Amino acid sequence: MIDAREFLASAQAHGYDFMTGVPCSFMTPLINSAIASDTMRYVGATSEGEAMAIAAGAWLAGRKTIVMMQNSGLGNAVNPLTSLNAPFRIPCLLMVSWRGRPGIADEPQHHLMGSIMHGLLEQMRIAHSPFPDDAAKISRALALADGCMRQTSLPYAFVVNQGDFADEPMSERHTRRRAAGSAVSFLRGGTLSKRSEALSAFLELEHEAAVIASTGKCGRELFTLDDRRHHLYQVGSMGCASAMGLGLALNTDRRVVVIDGDGAALMKLGNLATIGAYAPANLIHLLLDNGVHDSTGAQPTVSSTVAFADVAIACGYTFAASCDDLNGLREAYAMARDADGPALLHMRIAPGSISPLARPTLTPDVIARRMQGYLAETSQEAA
Q: Model pTM?
């Protein structure tokens, strides 16, 4: 049994400085210690997949990350682990509890995952080992995990059993909520612009912000119009762009813009609640809503019944705006830039994309490290 604070101290000595995740009773002491820590940033996520994306964004900003989850939530993390961390080669230390361990009584919902967890990690090519059972072994275990991640640039998992951590009381620290924000409407009811037109207008307005573009044609169009070293084009992990933007925004002073789609935003609406709770002032969330899954044949989404700007305000964003033309986008973006964010801009657009439509010519891992280098350089310049 290990004191969670002792593990945190050793992890920090190895450079880990950012944690996120979803609670599991096996790791309650570790989560409580992280929440209480003044030196280890902890962000509570609404889902394990969101946590993986938050950590990936923090990694872009140079952080060394830990993600905690119950193994039943490993299924929620499969998509970003395989389509974000794997192609972009983003390492992360996973702490995964072993609920449903064969031979140990547990709730019925844990039995199947308990029996397949190790095989699932292996299928995802995630190296793993048991969490150390003695405080004297922590540093060596972390060193071995670090060595593996340096070699593979992929996550590494510690498997945590019940009783691995000694009890630790809950801190009184909570996320801060600010005064209610406001939503502004620039809806005019005219002819809707195409996504490429909205992106072109955005590129004229913004030259230095770190940009996370959602998967599918959104990222492809942005790349086709103008590839910049501070742009990252998600090629998978649908719904994770805003969480990745949150992790980045919390760890850089530079403005961060997430360019999202309605289908992707709807997939992980919980991200908006986390963004509103942790309230990074430098985050602008641009949601381009064409009412369809454009990349897969224009099947309709349910966005026509969703007031995204109102949802954002309800979740804690300090500013939100709705628009349906380029002039409205320009006015709303100017207000968002001046606001103490987070801010969400919901723009209704027409379906369809430009032709020919290119794909990024750089591999995802090169794109990720290009942005990471850009952020490191600009951070040093600012200092």
A: 0.95
